[in-house]
């Protein structure tokens, strides 16, 4: 049987009276790239926060390599988180630190390495992501694509077994998006990493995913290979992947408000 790297089992979550996750089930095999796709406000980022233990479910559980991170005590959460690298949408870089220092930050913060060992790890990641020439630059002086690569270098410093990406190609042009997509593929092939990627970007999803979980209204509506998703006759999936404005899909209220106020 395949080893499961990540599992969300019947996860429910409400904020006040608003139910966001309504029985989320996802299984990601070790070494697999799973893309979570779905309309705005459907709970994709909230799902990632459950998987990193930042949020605990009202019901159900999330597992990292078979161990529950939900409601775990802080030390247990910390130890499970050490298996995870997270790439936030913004890159979450610190503006007054150089690229080198941003990448070194987790190693310094968690006292994982110092001196030459720290330098070796940071330089290895910078080389891997083609960032050596930018190592002394501040984040404000580099492009969006480079910022994402710095975020990725930083996520890799702790040698995670799983990498979670929140919208890794948002705000990038198609060429830069493919640089990031190809890095995700390279990390899977060369480092054997398991990836979970939240995205709206259909071409990215098709390029990198082994399987796609289509999230809708707090549940996985369909899970399958890119080809299976494209061939799914489900009207909501067809509307989404073809970007049609007309159809059965319920839009996020905040999107509706934005349309009405325009
Ligand atoms: N801490 C919170 N408190 C209250 N509501 C929240 C909280 N976090 C998320 N939500 C709400 O949960 C819903 C789902 O949010 P989430 O960020 O997961 O959506 P998403 O699917 O990632 O959307 P998008 O694609 O637009 O990023 C949203 O309506 C959001 O406002």
UniProtKB/TrEMBL annotation:
Example of a GO MF term: ATP binding
Span of domain ABC transporter: 6-242
SUPFAM superfamilies the record matches: P-loop containing nucleoside triphosphate hydrolases (SSF52540)
Name by which UniProt lists this protein: ABC transporter ATP-binding protein
PROSITE patterns associated with the record: ABC_TRANSPORTER_1, ABC_TRANSPORTER_2
Keywords in alphabetical order: ATP-binding, Nucleotide-binding, Transport
InterPro entries in the cross-refs: AAA+_ATPase, ABC_transporter-like_ATP-bd, ABC_transporter-like_CS, P-loop_NTPase
Cross-referenced Pfam families: ABC_tran
Record's keyword annotation contains Nucleotide-binding: yes
PANTHER family to which the protein is assigned, alphabetical: INTERMEMBRANE PHOSPHOLIPID TRANSPORT SYSTEM ATP-BINDING PROTEIN MLAF (PTHR43023:SF6), PROTEIN TRIGALACTOSYLDIACYLGLYCEROL 3, CHLOROPLASTIC (PTHR43023)
Gene3D superfamilies noted in UniProt: P-loop containing nucleotide triphosphate hydrolases
């Amino acid at each position: 049987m395949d080893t499961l790297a990540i599992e969300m089992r019947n996860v429910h979550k409400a904020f006040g009276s608003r139910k966001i996750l309504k029985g989320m089930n996802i299984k990601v095999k070790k070494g697999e790239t799973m893309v979570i796709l779905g309309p705005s406000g459907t709970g994709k980022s909230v799902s990632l926060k459950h998987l990193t233990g930042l949020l605990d479910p009202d019901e159900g559980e999330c597992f990292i390599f078979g161990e529950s991170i939900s409601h775990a005590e802080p030390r247990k959460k910390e130890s499970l988180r050490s298996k995870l690298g997270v790439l936030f949408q913004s890159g979450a870089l610190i503006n007054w630190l150089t690229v080198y220092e941003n990448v070194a930050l987790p190693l310094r913060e968690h006292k994982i390495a110092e001196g030459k060992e720290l330098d070796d790890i940071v330089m290895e990641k910078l080389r891997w992501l083609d960032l050596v020439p930018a190592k002394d630059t501040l984040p404000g002086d580099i492009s969006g694509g480079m910022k994402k690569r710095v975020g990725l270098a930083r996520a890799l410093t702790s040698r995670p077994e799983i990498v979670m990406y929140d919208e890794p190609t948002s705000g990038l042009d198609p060429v830069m998006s493919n640089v990031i997509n190809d890095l995700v593929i390279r990390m899977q092939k060369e480092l054997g990493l398991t990836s979970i990627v939240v995205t709206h970007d259909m071409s990215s999803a098709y390029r990198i995913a082994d399987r796609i979980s289509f999230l809708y209204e707090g549940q996985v509506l369909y899970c399958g290979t890119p080809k299976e998703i494209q061939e799914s006759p489900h009207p909501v999936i067809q509307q989404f992947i073809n970007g049609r404005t007309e159809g059965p899909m319920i839009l996020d209220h905040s999107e509706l408000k934005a349309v009405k106020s325009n």
